Amino acid sequence: MTVSSIANPDLITLYDNKPRWNLPDHRRHGFHNFHTTMLYSLSLRAPRVLPLRKEIDWTIGERPGVARFLAMPHFSAFVVVRDDRILYEAYAPDFGAEKPHPICSITKTTLNLMLGRAVADGFVNLDKRVGSYLPEIGTGYADATVKAVADMNVANDFTEDYGDPYTSAFDMDAAYGWRLPREGHKEETSRSFLCGISSNDHTNRTGHALYKSANSDVIGWIIARATGRPLRDWLIEIVEAAGIEGCFHMSCDREGVPMVSGGACLTARDLARYGLLFARKGEGIDGRRVGDAAFIEETRRNPGPTFEKPLDWFHYSRQTYTDGTWFGHSGYGGQYMFANPDTRTVVVYLSVLENKAAVDPEFGAALMKMATDLVVEK
């Protein structure tokens, strides 16, 4: 007798080529519980914590721009931190300070710290071809330079258009256990998926950044291969330097390879603690250091391509956004983090957009203007 089973209901594809947790009617619950939804994950904690003390500036919440975004139905959490002081924080009624939230592509910024150290220590050369580090990689990346990949400046057949139900990004989700593979398809590993990306010409002729989350996982693979250190070890170092208080949940594939392109979940306060690593140019707690201060500074002084309107006022640079002053990143579904070394300030905004695509460039542009105004003010 065979014991029967059914497909996991959270991860089976229902319509619009999305699993149940990512459909608009289920997305808020899915995001607020995503650390327990993904098939495979790592959970890391710091032995010593950066204490944050409240020194609330109520005028922050009274600003019309801030109040507008805190009143939106998709809002989850908002935190403003300077050094070790919480200047303002707010949470939605169905969320809270202790709950982890997916930060999605904000996770990519960990690669700036890893890559900076790998470059400074002589393990990685930004001008070398990807194929020189990963000889097994496919034509999608083999002849591209590490710098071009890190700056989202490579053309290949991977697509990340969340308005398209069959964009390549959703196939990559299946390799990381965010959904079950399409019927008749075998579950891939993240790296077998990356090797399947192809290109006849890597040259970016658009004049803008070609945003591809696959690029980030290629950079992570290069770092692990070139340094001989698994990505898990790099992440432990970052978590311990940030002094985060709760769990740093990281999605991974079946082989345990972390999804550095977008797999982290943590609390808003802990994301602010992490962002302070950029505000302090790699300086962590108790004398710990991550990344490379010179590399971090070069990231904002020598940026890569810009985005299309309405996001054309900043650049993509070494797995971060920058306007030459602040560092930051957005994430799928409405996640944002910004850090400014000049003011040592970090702003975090977490939310769950419930439209079909789970992205909204006009909303994102306005939110980023509000947040960057806060991080530049002294």
Structure write-up:
With 378 residues, the chain is of the alpha+beta class. The chain has one domain (13-376): DD-peptidase/beta-lactamase superfamily (Beta-lactamase). It has 13 helices and 14 strands. It has helices at 24-32, 58-62, 64-70, 109-120, 130-133, 146-150, 168-175, 190-195, 213-227, 231-242, 268-279, 293-301, 361-376; strands spanning 13-15, 18-19, 41-44, 53-54, 75-82, 85-91, 101-102, 248-251, 264-266, 315-317, 320-322, 327-331, 335-340, 345-351. Helix 4 (109-120) packs parallel to helix 9 and helix 10 (231-242) crosses helix 11. The protein starts with 12 loop residues before the first strand and ends with a helix.
Task: Write a brief structural summary.
The chain has 378 residues and is of the alpha+beta class. The chain has helices at 24-32, 58-62, 64-70, 109-120, 130-133, 146-150, 168-175, 190-195, 213-227, 231-242, 268-279, 293-301, 361-376; strands at 13-15, 18-19, 41-44, 53-54, 75-82, 85-91, 101-102, 248-251, 264-266, 315-317, 320-322, 327-331, 335-340, 345-351. Helix 4 (109-120) packs parallel to helix 9 (213-227) and helix 10 crosses helix 11.
